[in-house]
Amino acid sequence: MSKDVDNELKGLFQKGLSTRREVLGPDYVDGSLQKANDFMMSFQHITTEWCWGYAWNRPGLERKIRSMLNLAMLTALNRPNELRLHVKGALRNGVSVDEIREVLLQATVYCGIPAGLDAFKSANQVLEEEGAFEAGQG
């Protein structure tokens, strides 16, 4: 690998690491890195550089919109574990409970009831844990 490419990847990793920590929380991100062996560290690099360093830092969309898109895509892919993680990130990025609900309803219509149900259950769990519901809401 050329020195320029290596430096560019290091820059993307650092930028991505900062964004990833801001959105997902430093405990989760640092824990993932600390638990990674040599094999898994390859995945940590690609997700931090490409996903968080490149895609999440492009100028075309604000983080709130990116979070909303992720919720819809993770519903479509039926990935409840990742969805729970990204509900927390969506809250950090300013997505309201009402907006999360609307994204999941929209995704349910297009992705199907089973995927929507899993998404709602996962999101509800996180929203309760995070104290995101106002008194009497839920």
Walkthrough of the structure:
The chain has two domains: 1-58, no CATH class; 62-138, Up-down Bundle (AhpD-like). 78% of the residues lie in helices and 0% in strands. It has seven helices and no strands. The chain has helices at residues 3-24, 26-35, 38-54, 63-76, 80-92, 97-111, 113-129. Helix 4 (63-76) runs antiparallel to helix 5 (80-92) and helix 5 (80-92) packs across helix 7. The mean pLDDT is 93.
In short:
This protein is mainly alpha-helical and 138 residues long. The protein has two domains: 1-58, no CATH class; 62-138, AhpD-like (Up-down Bundle). It contains seven helices and no strands.
SSE inventory with pairings:
Blueprint: H1 3-24, H2 26-35, H3 38-54, H4 63-76, H5 80-92, H6 97-111, H7 113-129
Helix pairs in contact: 1-2, 1-3, 4-5, 4-6, 4-7, 5-7, 6-7
CATH class of the largest domain: Mainly Alpha
Query: Rg from C-alpha positions?
Result: 16 Å
Please describe the biggest sheet, giving its number of strands, its sense, and whether it closes into a barrel. Answer: none
Helix content: over 70%
Q: What labels describe this entry?
A:
single chain; mainly alpha; 7 helices; about 140 residues; 2 domains; AhpD-like; elongated
